[in-house]
């Protein structure tokens, strides 16, 4: 007995629609979905759990609100559709005060809740350590990075611009910053020329660097909690070779970090490569303007 073509098409349509929820349920168990497709792992630093939870919970709230909104829209479309043989227009209403109060109050409540959680997590990530174990002076420049280990009074080799020619990803071609795991680290950020942005992708946190501004006004305080090698880049369009302003971050054990400091000291990389290597032609004018605005 053959199945009519119309029924066959209907069966296939419903089968295809039933596969979608099944696939969504299966993929929701993956680690990528649980962290909202964010890069890196949840416990890369002490801040990444805050970012992950805020991101994922915001999407959950948005999905719930979206489902409710679409359900109400569809319900109105079906319940108040124009019936057959209906003549004229439905009764017109100039306003509905309870409905308008609802439309105003609910979005305000949603925004206030999101603001409270965002402000709480932002304040937690912006807190500074009273006595960090490691202090790094980070200098962005067109188009590379300089890293100074302040307490140890040594510096990495001056950063050299990467070249996207197929070999740029090798570790010895990129400036590399070493950080000890499970230690309080303060990154003090400054620019040698134009505006840049320090971004370690897996740390889920970045901050802009401005020329002529005191380096202690721009900082990131974190505790790296997972060893490994991570990707760094400039996240602010800073000129022709912005895309090649790359670096790496290696989070290592305390012993490996101390060995790196000893290697730099043995190479003669002592001292801090500071303001004397800045090349912003407007820096004197910026400093004078800053002095005039200080009380």
Brief synopsis:
The protein has 295 residues and is an alpha+beta fold.
What does this structure look like?
By secondary structure, the protein is an alpha+beta fold. The chain has 2 domains: 34-78 and 95-127; 134-274, Sandwich (Immunoglobulin-like), CATH 2.60.40.420. Helices cover 39% and strands 19% of the residues. The chain has helices at 5-27, 31-34, 48-79, 97-126, 254-267, 283-293; strands spanning 134-141, 144-149, 154-155, 176-180, 185-191, 196-200, 205-209, 219-222, 228-234, 246-252. The strands form 2 sheets. The protein has a 5-stranded mixed β-sheet. Strands 4-10-9-6-7 form a 5-stranded mixed β-sheet. Strand 2 and strand 3 form a beta hairpin. Helix 3 runs antiparallel to helix 4. The chain is elongated. The N and C termini lie far apart (93 Å). 22% of the residues are buried. The model has no long low-confidence stretch (mean pLDDT 83). Its EC number is 7.1.1.9. It holds the Pfam family COX2. The chain crosses the membrane at residues 55-80, 101-118. It is a multi-pass membrane protein. It catalyses: 4 Fe(II)-[cytochrome c] + O2 + 8 H(+)(in) = 4 Fe(III)-[cytochrome c] + 2 H2O + 4 H(+)(out).
């Amino acid at each position: 007995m053959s199945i009519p073509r119309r029924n066959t098409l209907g069966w296939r349509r419903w089968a295809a629609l039933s596969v979608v929820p099944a696939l969504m349920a299966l993929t929701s168990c993956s680690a990528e979905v649980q962290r909202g497709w964010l890069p890196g792992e949840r416990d890369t630093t002490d801040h990444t759990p805050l970012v992950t939870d805020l991101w994922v919970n915001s999407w959950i709230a948005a999905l719930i609100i979206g489902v409710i909104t679409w359900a109400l829209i569809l319900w109105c479309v079906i319940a108040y559709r124009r019936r057959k043989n209906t003549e004229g227009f439905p009764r017109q209403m100039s306003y509905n005060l309870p409905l308008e109060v609802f439309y105003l109050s609910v979005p305000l409540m949603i925004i206030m809740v999101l603001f409270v959680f965002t402000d709480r997590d932002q304040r937690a990530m912006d807190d500074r350590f009273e006595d960090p174990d490691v202090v790094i002076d980070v200098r962005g420049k067109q188009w590379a990075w300089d890293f100074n280990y302040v307490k140890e009074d040594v510096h990495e080799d001056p950063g050299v611009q990467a070249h996207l020619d197929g070999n740029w990803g090798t570790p010895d071609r990129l400036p590399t910053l070493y950080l000890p795991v499970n230690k309080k680290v303060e990154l003090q950020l400054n620019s040698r020329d134009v505006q840049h942005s320090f971004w370690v992708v897996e740390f889920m946190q970045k901050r802009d660097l401005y020329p002529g501004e005191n380096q202690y006004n721009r900082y990131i305080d974190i505790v790296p909690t997972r060893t490994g090698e991570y990707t760094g880049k400039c996240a602010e369009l800073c000129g022709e070779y912005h895309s090649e302003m790359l670096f790496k971050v290696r989070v290592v054990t305390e012993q490996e970090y101390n060995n790196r400091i000893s290697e730099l000291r043995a190479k003669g990389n002592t001292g801090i490569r500071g303001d004397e290597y800045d090349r912003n032609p407007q820096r004197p004018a910026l400093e004078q303007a800053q002095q005039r605005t200080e009380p």
